[in-house]
Design goal:
Blueprint: H1 9-50, E1 52-70, E2 73-84, E3 93-102, E4 114-119, E5 126-128, H2 149-152
Antiparallel strand pairs: 1-2, 1-4, 2-3, 4-5
């Protein structure tokens, strides 16, 4: 009779190693995403606090079909093509912006509407200002951040 030295460890050890590797890769990826989101959030907050106020004409609005829920509302992730109007120290420019917009506020961002923005004149990064009665979205969206009260006093 042949000696079969098969044990459960021949299956279990590679499976556990694969699960550990997958867990490490997933955790590293999520950590990078979180760090990138934090950098974008801080950059947007800085633009809201110190950016140049301007008005932007919505050239097009494209709903991506993605939704986020939280803070008592549902958000539509939308791509906006904006024409930022010239201010005293800069010229007009176009920009594409992906942002979360509360579902009741979608008609206010339709093509042909004008929205308030702040932008960095050097990098031309744009952040939408939100209305006072519109809920804030603090997830992946960078355009719905409120400036800190200290920045508003400056």
């Amino acid at each position: 009779m042949p000696d079969v030295s098969f044990t459960i460890w021949w299956v279990l050890a590679p499976l556990l190693a694969w699960l550990a590797f997958t867990l490490c890769v997933t955790l590293a990826r999520e950590r990078r995403r979180h760090a990138a989101r934090l950098v974008r959030t801080r950059r947007a907050a800085g633009i809201l606090a110190n950016g140049v106020p301007a008005m932007a004409l919505v050239i097009s609005l494209c709903d991506t079909g993605q939704r986020r829920s939280g803070e008592g509302t549902t958000w539509a992730i939308a791509k906006l093509h904006l024409h930022v109007q010239a201010t005293a120290g800069s010229e007009a420019f176009n920009v594409d912006q992906t942002t979360a917009i509360a579902l009741p506020d979608l008609p206010d961002h339709a093509a042909g509407k004008t929205v308030a923005v702040r932008f960095d004149p050097v990098s031309r990064e744009v952040v939408l200002e939100r209305r006072g009665n519109s809920p804030a979205h603090h997830g992946d969206d960078l355009t719905r951040l409120r400036p800190s009260p200290e920045a508003a006093d400056r």
